Amino acid sequence: MAHRVSLVANSSKYISSFRLGFRLCSTASGGAKNYTSIDKEDVAKEAEYKQHQADRKLTTPRNLTDEEKFASSNMRLIKYRIRDAEVDKAAPGLVERRVEPGTTVTVPAKDDVTALSGVPEEHIKTRHVRIYCPTRSVTQSGSHGTKNWRIEFDNRERWENPLMGWTSSADPLSTMAISFASSEEAAEFCSKNGWAYHIEERRVPPLRPKSYGANFSWDKRTRRSTK
């Protein structure tokens, strides 16, 4: 054990002496700096690095309070207003007016989105839309599916196969199904897209009150459900 400790001590002594000899040899061979100057340079670099880390800690962002956020936003708003005033004074009409929070913006009553919708012109000016309420199917007893309004385009030419009953169409709008809560919303949607339309009035069947006993009664003309 003592022999191992002596070997470790000797090896560390040899390594330190090797480092010192390397520095002294570099100085003797024209390394330009002696041993003490190298140590001073290392200490100076380490101090500079510590100062840099301290400066970074001082400049790291922190969570601002509500008062500081409000003050910074007000200063930013004042800066923008001063800049806009200077630009507007130099060249009137170039400054885009900003809308303050809480103000009301007036939008034109008619919005035309035909230029942005991407629909070809042949499917805008030549199409007619029918706005209607769907009826109940044969197998449907409830009327919940008849509350919404739908739009349907006029039929275009179709290809038919009389043998198997197959039909096809090149109309991209033939299968479009959009539901609306009211006929006014559907009409506004058609107006925005530039489609001509007409509205079919909803047919509401009258509610006829019936009594449960009428199903089992017998009168002069007919007998219901008890034949």
UniProtKB/TrEMBL annotation:
Gene Ontology biological-process entries: electron transport chain
GO cellular component: mitochondrial inner membrane
Subcellular compartments: Mitochondrion inner membrane
InterPro entries xref list: NADH_UbQ_FeS_4_mit-like, NDUFS4-like_sf
Gene3D superfamilies referenced in this protein's UniProt entry, alphabetically: atu1810 like domain
Domain of life: Eukaryota
Major location category of this protein: mitochondrion
Signal peptide: none
Membrane topology reported for the UniProt record: Peripheral membrane protein
UniProtKB keywords: Electron transport, Membrane, Mitochondrion, Mitochondrion inner membrane, Respiratory chain, Transit peptide, Transport
Transmembrane segments: none
Keyword Metal-binding recorded: no
Family from the record: Belongs to the complex I NDUFS4 subunit family.
Function: Accessory subunit of the mitochondrial membrane respiratory chain NADH dehydrogenase (Complex I), that is believed not to be involved in catalysis. Complex I functions in the transfer of electrons from NADH to the respiratory chain. The immediate electron acceptor for the enzyme is believed to be ubiquinone.
Protein's recorded name: NADH dehydrogenase [ubiquinone] iron-sulfur protein 4, mitochondrial
Organism: Macrostomum lignano
